[in-house]
Amino acid sequence: MYQPKIVIVGAGIVGLSTAYALLKQGMKQVTVLEQAVVDHRRSTSHGLSRLLRFEYGPDRLYTQMVQLSLNRWLSLERTSRRILYTPTGLLSLGHENDTVTRASYHVLREAGIPVKTLSRQECITQFPQFNTKLYELFTYNTDGGILHASFCLHTLKELILDMGGIIREQVRVTRIAHDNRQYPVRLHLHTGDVLAADHVVIATGPWVHRLLGDQRLPVRLTRQYVLYFANLPTTAFKRNTFPAFQADDLYGFPIHSTCGGYGPGWLKGTSHSFGNSVDPDEMPHMDEQVVTHIARKLRTLLPALEQAELAHVDSCIYDVSPDEDFILDYLPDDPRIVFATGLTGHGFKFGPLLGELLSSLVCETPPPVALNRFQVARFGTIHAGSVA
Fold first, then answer.
1. How far apart are the C-alpha atoms of 311 and 292, rounded to whole Å?
2. d(Cα 205, Cα 211) in Å, to the nearest integer?
3. 3-class DSSP assignment, residue 204
4. How many CB atoms lie within 10 A of CB 35?
5. Alpha-carbon distance 325 to 59, whole Å?
6. Which pLDDT does position 33 carry in this prediction?
7. How far apart are CA 173 and CA 369, in angstroms?
8. How far apart are CA 338 and CA 328, in angstroms?
9. Dist. CA 237–CA 215, nearest whole Å
10. Which residue in 232, 163, 191, 212 sits closest to 35, CA to CA?
11. Alpha carbon distance 258, 238 (integer Å)
C-alpha cells in the first residue's frame, strides 16, 4: 500500500505534535524540518513552563479543548513515563463586571472541572501572598497547572524518532513550489536541495510569513516579555502553597526550576497584553519601559516581589490573529498544504490536540473537534498566491 510522503515545516509544539499524531495514525513517511534545533531559544515553544488553564470566559469550546488536551498530555506521560504536567491549582482574581471570571466559573462547573469561588477572606487566608484589594471576585480551580515546555518538546522528539519518524535539524525551507498538482509539492532548502512531498504541514510559529507571505494572512507578530523573580521565601511561594494565577492581563506560576529538575528556582510572571509588532529574525531588543511596567503590576499584585530580585527577563513572540482564535486550514488553492498559525500566545497547552486536528486535515479523517471556527475564510478573501 502506497504511503504518502508527509513533510512538516517547524519543530515546535505544533509541528512535533502533528508528526506524533500522524505516526500514531499509521503514517510511515513523516519528516519534520527545523531551521535551527528542537527547543532552540528563539522558538515560541522553548522555556521552563506554560500555563494549562481552563478559564476562557463564556467560550465553552476552548474549555472543552483544554479538557481534551489534558487527557492527551496525561496519555503522553503514560507512554513516555515522564512528568510533563504538574497540577498547581489556578487562582483567578477578577471583577464582578469583567467578561471572564464569573463566566469561566459557570462554564467550568458545567464541564465538571473542580472549581470553587472564594470570599475575599477565604482568599486572604488560603493565599496571603496576594494583594486582593483591587479585586472582588476570586475563583480557584485545582486542575490548573504547569506544562514543562522544553521537556515536552524533547519527549515528543524522542517518541517520534522511536516510531520511525525523521527530524532534520538545521534545515531551512526557503520556498515551497506547488504549481502543478500532477507533481509532488517541492520544498526548496537553503542548501540548494529540493525535497518532494505529497502533503506539507506548515507550523513555523512567528516565521509564518516567510513561507506564506503571498497569502497575506491577518497575523501580527508581537514581542512579549517573561519575568523571573529570585530570592523569594520558598515556603510561601512553592507549589502546594502558592498557586498559578491570573489577574486581569497578568498570569504567573509558583517557584519552579527548569523542566528537567535542575537549575535555579524562580517565580515566573508576565502580562498577556500584546506587545509591539516585530520581525522574528531581528535580534530581541529589550524594551525596559515595558518590562518595568509589567514588574510594577506584578509587585502590586504580589507585594513580596518588592524585595525579590528580578533575576532574568526572557522574550518570545506571539502570532496573533484578529479574533485571537487559531487558524488551522488548508492553503486556499492547494489542499495538499495544511498550515497552523494565530496561536496568539495560548496554543502550547493544546499541542497534542492541535497535532491531531492537523493530522485529520492531512489524512482527511474526522477531527476530534469541529474545525469550522478555525478556517481562514472567516477573515474574508485571502489572496491565493504561490507559496514563496
1. 13
2. 11
3. coil
4. 21
5. 11
6. 98
7. 30
8. 8
9. 46
10. 191
11. 14
Helix (H) or strand (E) holding 76: helix 60-80
Residue type, 361: L
DSSP secondary structure letter of residue 339: E
The pLDDT, as a whole number, for residue 385 is 42
CA nearest neighbour of 244 among 302, 307, 326: 302
Return the pLDDT at 180: 87
Residue in 139, 90, 355, 126 with CA at minimum distance from that of residue 245: 90
Residue 13 is predicted with a pLDDT of 98
Does residue 187 contact residue 173 with C-beta atoms inside 8 Å? yes
Q: Are 295 and 310 in contact (CB under 8 A)?
A: yes
Question: In angstroms, how far apart are the furthest CA atoms of the chain?
Answer: 69
Do residues 141 and 108 touch, judged by C-beta distance below 8 A? Answer: yes
DSSP 8-state assignment for residue 291: H
86, β-bridge pairs: 146
The structural domains of the chain, ordered by start, are: 5-45+150-219+323-379 (3.50.50.60), 50-147+220-320 (3.30.9.10)
Residues with Cβ < 8 Å from 193, sequence gap 6 or more?
Answer: none
Which three cell numbers mark 79? 507512554
Reported as half-sphere exposure (CB side, CA atoms, 13 A), residue 24 has a value of: 18
Name the stretches of the chain with pLDDT < 50.
Answer: 258-260, 383-388
pLDDT given for residue 36 in this prediction? 96
In whole angstroms, give the CA distance from residue 214 to residue 220.
15
R_g (Cα) of the chain, nearest Å: 21
The alpha carbon of residue 73 and the mean position of all alpha carbons in its chain are separated, in whole angstroms, by: 13
Provide the 8-state DSSP code for 350. G
